[in-house]
Amino acid sequence: MSYIDFRKVDKIYRTGDVEVAALRDVTMRIEKGELTVILGQSGAGKTTLLNILGGMDRLTQGQVFVDGREISQYNTKQLAEYRRYDVGFVFQFYNLIPNLTAIENVEMASQLVKGSFSCEQMLDMVGLRDRRDNFPAQLSGGEQQRVAIARAIAKRPKLLLCDEPTGALDYETGKSILKLLQNLARNHNMTVVIITHNSALAPMADRVVRVKSGEILSNVVNTDPVDVDTIEW
Amino acid sequence: MTAYIKTVLRSIRNSIGRFVAIFAIIALGVGFFAGLKLSMPSFRETGNEFLQDGQLFDFRLVSTIGFDDEDVSRLRRIKGVRSVQGAYTADAVVLIDGNNELVYTVRFHSLTDGVNIPKLIEGRMPQTPNEIVVDEYNMKSDVLGKKIRLSGDNPTSTTDIMKYDEYEVVGLIRSPYYLNFQRGNSDVGSGNIGFYIYAPAESFDSEFYHEVYVKYDNDDFIFSEEYDDFVSLVEKNLEKDTETVINDRFDTILRDTYTELYDAQDELDDKRREASEELEDGLRELRDASDELKDARQELEDGEKELKDARKTLDDSAADLASARRKLDDAEASINSGKKELEQAQSEIDSNRAKLESAKAEINDNIKQVNAGIDQANATITDLQGKLPQIEAGIDQVSGQLEQLYAARDAGEDVDEQIAECEAILEELQGNKSACQTGIAQAEAMIDELSAKIPLLEAGLQEIADNEKALDQGQAEVDSSRAKLNTAIKEYESGLAQYNDGKARLKDGEDKYKDALKKYEDGVAEYEDGFAEYMDGWREYAENKEKFVNEIGRYERELEYAWREIAKVKKPETYVMGRDTNVGYVSFDNDSRIVDGITKVFPVFFFALAALVCSTTMSRMVSDERTQIGTMRALGYSEFAIVMKYVLYSGSASVSGCIAGYLGGSKLFPYVIWEVYRMMYGFADITFVGSIWVFLLALAVSVICSIGVTVVTCMAELTGMPADLIRPKAPTAGKRILLERIPFIWKRFMFLHKVSCRNVFRFKKRMWMMIIGIAGCTSLLITGFGIRDSIDGIVDYHYDNVMPYDGSAIADRAGDKELREALDETNATLGTKYIYSTARVKSVTHQGRDMIRDVSLILSDDPEITKFTIPIDYYTGEHLAWPSQGNIAISSKLADKNGLKAGDTITLSYDDGAKTITARIEYVFENYIFHYAFMSGATYEELTGEVYRPDQAFVIRDDSGVEPWKFMSMLSEICDIKMWTLTSDFRTSFSETMKQLNLVVILVIACAAGLAFIVMFNLNNINISERIREIATLKVMGFNRLETGSYVFRENIILVIIGFIFGIPLGRLLHAFVIAQIEMDTVTFVTKVLPLSYLWSVLFVSAFTVIVDLVMRIKIERIDMAESLKSVE
Hints:
The structure holds two protein chains of two kinds. Chain A is built from six helices and ten strands, in the order E-E-E-H-E-E-H-E-H-H-H-E-H-E-E-E. By secondary structure, chain A is of the alpha/beta class. In chain A, strands 6-7-8-3-9-10 form a six-stranded mixed beta sheet, sandwiched between helices. The N and C termini of chain A lie far apart (35 Å). Chain B folds into five domains: 1-50 and 591-729, no CATH class; 51-236, no CATH class; 237-567, no CATH class; 763-800 and 982-1129, no CATH class; 801-981, no CATH class. Chain B contains 24 helices and 20 strands. A nine-stranded mixed beta sheet of chain B has the order 16-17-15-18-14-13-19-12-20. A six-stranded mixed β-barrel of chain B has the order 3-4-9-6-8-7. Chain B has a four-stranded antiparallel beta sheet with strand order 2-10-1-11, covered by helices on one side. In chain B, strand 16 and strand 17 form a beta hairpin. In chain B, helix 2 crosses helix 10 (639-677). The longest helix of chain B is centred in the first third of the chain and has 186 residues, at 225-410. Classes of the chains: A alpha/beta, B alpha+beta.
């Protein structure tokens, strides 16, 4: 069994009498330690996929296994625990707590779990040692996203989910973030899933999943992922 | 503009919570404001209607000589008066039919036309003089139809005035004269008037009216400045007029009185002269009568002597007659005996002659017999002598035979038997021979004897002849005696005739005497009558003389007294008293102000919050719709149009809230507070008063609070360029807070707590709003509960610590000693150890700065009294001694209200203001209910010159389990008790009264709760909606439900705690303020809040917080995690 295993997953939203299938018969596998990029246009269903993978939403039909556990069977409480212990989230708009300094934002996450990484170390890793006592408003977008990443990985998640991590960033900053994510996967054997509409990111991934209209178009393992520095868009 | 209106409507629909929040806070604020603001006008309107309907007097006139009809009609001529009415009043002790136990002290008033018209509540008004209507406040409808009877204990001052002893209750009324519950004091009965009675004027029997009520032709609003102006305008003149009228009458009376006195003096002199003359005449008559009596007496004495002589003559005659009678009787007796003797002598002679004849015959017989005997004896002798030879022959023959036989017997022959036979024959023959011989002898003797008798007989014959001769002689003597007797008889008969004549003569004399005697006796009787009459005449004379002396003396004294009195008469006093002397009217004025006082604080508070709520809500709304605003501006909408949208939004919420609040509040608050007032007033149902000004003011404030705030907020937002507006607003920057500068504390905080702490201060406006809201809510609750503490506790505190006696009894006649003895006896009888003290409680009044107060002056010389009414220093709480000689002590409220303190002097008046006591205040003592003053009996005597007589006993129960009422009933059996009261009754009735105030407490709590909910819901709502993204992120990060909720609500908890920190002291202040505002005159509230009330207030607020949390948690639950993924708008 793969580390992440989607089996015939359907997700249907009901609005009154209208049924909209966000995901249809999705079967997908991702292995541990892989950097996966899920590609798709707006409305292709990639966010739904992320929601389900991140334990934020339930599916309508099918099964989802993460590290051998069927999260599709989890109740609300179990899902919360799953998110707490197993998943790290990186948001497009960073979603830092504005009232907390950089280090505090990381601490907030690390306090949720036992055996978390040292927050100082995390900030070191994302290269923000000097900005640790700054409030988010005092940080640039890239810096905020670095804090967000530090926050996400501080609790040693099994899975790092990133939703358009570069979406709100300029080119250079975006690149440095992607580099950070790639390093995490490579150096720390972290399973990273990046959701993006930017197909330019595909070459850097270990696996590329293409989504369209709620269906998986392709699920390809990239045998030779390139370094982020070499990617251009 | 349809699209424009649509956006507005949609905004409302989409954020109904926000709309409701503005609506509610405005409604609450306006309701509170309008309600409190309109309470006083409503009360006053209610009072005004009642008093105008009842035409409450403008002035009450009293004079020391009363008023008569002439005075009243003169007063009626005063310009501008509508009604001037003389009235009677009398205090009485009455019993109600069917209940002989309960005695009431009441005040009778006469019904007056056009002034002080009582409002009929039930039944009908009196139609006959013995029908009455009574106080509806104190009596229930079951009294209708019952008889009210004057008790026997009424003083003559009452019974003289009241025409009847019994009156029938026909109706229940409320008099405008008695606006509140106080009925005043009286000298009669218990001293406290239980209820009032209105009766037709004809029920009273008084020469003068006791008072006159004046109602001017003026309908100015009660307590209004116009009215006060009017009063001061007319008062002076009225005083002058009243004085003139009364002085005129007084002069007339005085003149009349003088005339009367002079007349009386003349009359007295005349009478004295007349009477003396009459007495002298009487004396003269008596003397004449005395002379006459003396003459009569002489005459009678003469008559008596004559009578005595006549008597003597008569008696002599009678004696003569009696001796004549005796002689006659003797003569008669000798005649009769002579006759008898004669007849005896005759019959003796006759019998002797007969005897002689028979003796002669007898002798002759005897001679014949003797001769016959001699012949017979001679015959016998011849016979016997013939037989004797034969017998001798036989004897010889038998003697021969016997010899033969002897011989034969000797021969042996058996001849014995023949012998015996021959012997017997022989013997017999011998006997015969002797007998013959004797017989012959005897006959011979006989012849001898008889022969002797013959001479004797012949002598006898001789004797008889002699006797016959003597008899003849006797016969001659008898015949001569008879002749003599016949002569004597003739003599006797003539004497008898003479006697009878004398007797007839005597009888005549006797009759004549009797007549004379009778005449004499009549004369005596007549004399005696005359004498008695004469004596009566003297007695009568003496009596009349005494009467004359006494009566004249009395009249002289009376007249003298009258002269002295009239010389002493002072000019009469008149009093003109306005409504400000009417307790009910003044109390109502004061009490209706109370609520107005509160309006100074509360509404400001609510409006401040309303402004804050609007501001935060609207700025949130504007922020939310930032992009939309930018778009609209970019599309070319004017700033005005954009602002109008929000103005319309908040304006519609606030205006509708204002209307709803005004309508609800202006009814609810006056109604509830009036219900509380009802226990003191309750003379009518409330008349709600609306005020367009209050409404406009409320509206203006609401509009400023909502629209003003909205405009300001919008303008702040709109200053940016459209481009800026379209971009998301930078989130509020995080900041370090002061607390972080104290690492000592900060480091100990848990991480999430740090976040909350920092969040609290992130939104300053909301923080303050929350703090003010919570603090306000807390302080309101503390005030609410505190009002209850202040009021509830008083009764118990007062009766536990200040006046701890369990009962008191007023003796009817008993003095101190008797009362004490009775109390001891009661203790002995019941086996109790009740302690007691004696005193006198005098009802006095004090003319204070602001009003007249009834004060109970406790007089006592008993050192024990301080155990029963404890003098505790008002300022130091120290227990003090009873005021020393010449000093007085007064209760705290009396001192506070008049600015009096120890060392000042106070003047108390009594007997309707006729007498006063002025004394130096030694100290001010703690007291909560009513007004009291303490003084020693000796001081009272010294200051008033009146005698101090303790007649009231205070008792404190023991632990024997004998209830005070039992003790009191026993005491009243032992001693004559006028009335007794139990403290527990006061306690109960006061507590009942105070319970009404719980309504206010509930009202306050409800308002506080409303406030707390509106503020907290609104704030949390804003808080959460503003932080949806943050919360969603937390959720995504794996915060569980509890953690997410706590993350938000921890801030609430911190704010609530801060709110408490501000709210508790604020509550204390507010409570003190409210207590000062709602103060009543007869009750002193303690400005204290019990710890429990703080606890309750905190718990209530906490409970509100928890409720809000629970509701808000649901909202948090509903937040979709996907929100975290959305782009920032």
